[in-house]
Amino acid sequence: xxxxxxxxxxxxxxxxxxxxxxxxxxxxxxxxxxxxxxxxxxxxxxxxxxxxxxxxxxxxxxxxxxxxxxxxxxxxxxx
Length: 79
Prior knowledge:
Blueprint: E1 5-11, E2 22-30, E3 33-43, E4 48-49, E5 54-55, H1 60-78
């Protein structure tokens, strides 16, 4: 059985918090079936790289959020 998996991290501009942060969402598509959930991580809009699905920069916050997103990606592939 050939299964196609697509993983996308994206921000939702419509869910901007009062202090100016955007929530990061995870969308997983497996053989055309889509599942979407929030990652419980937030980022400033200017620090989000939509093309890469990561936080830009080398700050401690950027490294920790990117490490968490990589962990989530690995967990999805392990399932």
